[in-house]
């Protein structure tokens, strides 16, 4: 994946590679965005269009993933991919809801972690 900030992405990759689920998650994202980058370079439309059209390829390579994982992946892609901001601006309302719900879950998780740390 072509990223906006290689240092930040490198840290995120290291976190994801700590267990098999993370490695699978990372492999899926890399397959998905590699195809999207190719389509985007062919000027097929917006970054969101390239992501949409690339999902089937990633599913064929790695198997279908749940909407929950897709939402998490879209958050990672929007955050790190060179074209992530453009993609996020062009997401449909359903796609955006997936992203928003995953962000809300992540914030709740961080709040719980901080609360536990404060209680110790």
Describe the structure in your own words.
It is built from six helices and no strands. The protein has one domain (6-119). Helix 2 (20-41) crosses helix 3 (47-62) and helix 4 packs across helix 6 (93-119). With 120 residues, the protein is mainly alpha-helical. The mean pLDDT is 92. The longest helix is centred in the C-terminal third of the chain and has 27 residues, at 93-119.
Looking at this protein, list some descriptive labels.
80% helix; mainly alpha; 120 residues
Indicate the topology:
Blueprint: H1 6-16, H2 20-41, H3 47-62, H4 67-80, H5 84-89, H6 93-119
Helix pairs in contact: 2-3, 4-6
Please mark out the parts with pLDDT under 50 across 5 or more consecutive residues, or reply none: none
The largest pleated sheet is described as: none
Mean pLDDT: 92
Assign a percent range to the helix content: over 70%
Give the radius of gyration.
15 Å
Count of spatially separate domains: 1
DSSP strand content: under 5%
- Which overall shape is indicated by the principal axes computed on the Cα atoms? globular
For the terminal residues, how far apart are their CA atoms?
Answer: 39 Å
| Number of helical segments with 4 or more residues | 6
Q: What is the number of E strands?
A: 0
Classification by helices and strands: mainly alpha
H and E order = HHHHHH
